[in-house]
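Exam review. A common question shows you a sequence with its structure tokens and asks you to describe the fold in words. Practice with the pair below. Do the first one on your own.
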Amino acid sequence: MLWIKSLHIVFVVSWFAGLFYLPRIFVNLAQESETLVHTRLLGMARRLYRFTTILSVPAVLLGLWLYLGYGIGKGPGNGWMHAKLGLVVLVIGYHHACGSLLKKFERGANTRSHTWYRWFNEVPVLLLLAIVVLVVVKPF
């Protein structure tokens, strides 16, 4: 079980690294007017989104393995796990929202400002903070 838990943590950390950086690329894309730089940033965003998507799969599957296979977080007094799973669903939604925003940039249809993307960039930080507190503190 400890190997599964270790791998789960590594993949989650890697997934979140991508979720922290991808919206930062969006900030730069929203500000950039030079075509060559815009094209380069778009390529970076595309590759990062693809790689981050690949990392998310084992992160989620290993987490499910821990929950379903080993029963971590099951039973009475584990309301924290239900809250955590709800937040994980929000993280997956955020990940897909990043994909939708990337498609808008690819089509040249972005309507949001760099300031909006700066605020959007803070969402995964708050989600990760809440998830870590739930897992470590287990408040309910």
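Now try the second one, then compare your answer with the model answer below.
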Amino acid sequence: MTLHLGDIAPDFEQQSTQGSIRFHEWLSDSWGILFSHPKDFTPVCTTELGVVARLAPEWAKRNTKVVGLSVDPLESHQEWASDIAETQGSALNFPLLADQDGKVSRLYDMIHPNADAKLTVRSVFIIDPQKKIRLILTYPPSAGRSFDEIIRVLDSLQLTDGYKVTTPANWHQGDDVIIAPSVSDEQAKQLFPQGWKTLRPYLRLVRQPEEKSK
């Protein structure tokens, strides 16, 4: 199944290190991040899971739930969790799906036969509270994911959902943003009474608005 931005994230029920999860019900009205790992006891993924665990306060600030996935069984996940806690200094504090039957992997097109016929690629999906897919990333096995970048995109999505702006290259929280091209100058006067800087008629920079409650 090929998924695209704007598609409704497929629902599923699967076992995890925190019990059985019905995905849409578990997400409720939160944002969600689903990310996969090729298999348990892999070095890069061990470091990634430690980072995601340490970022728990950042996910909470953004009303975001995170869930990992590997095609190994639950017993293996539980053994791996001990290694993660010992080597990374952070215990798993989010569910890790035990997708041994490949049900979720197939739903989310995580098996790429030309890369590996059995193991999942290292995918990332950001899902909004309406259950729509807002970001899809696929990483090679040798490169650890930048969760700083994933948070940056999450911040951009949440900001631009609330205001008629877009975010420029390398944007971070607090930087200037771009007034959406669909907004006329007359409309912009109402939305951004503090004014803006026009570099081109289609490129108008404005101070980042204060975010609404997530």
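Model answer, second protein: The mean pLDDT is 93. The longest helix spans residues 147-162. Full marks require stating both points clearly.
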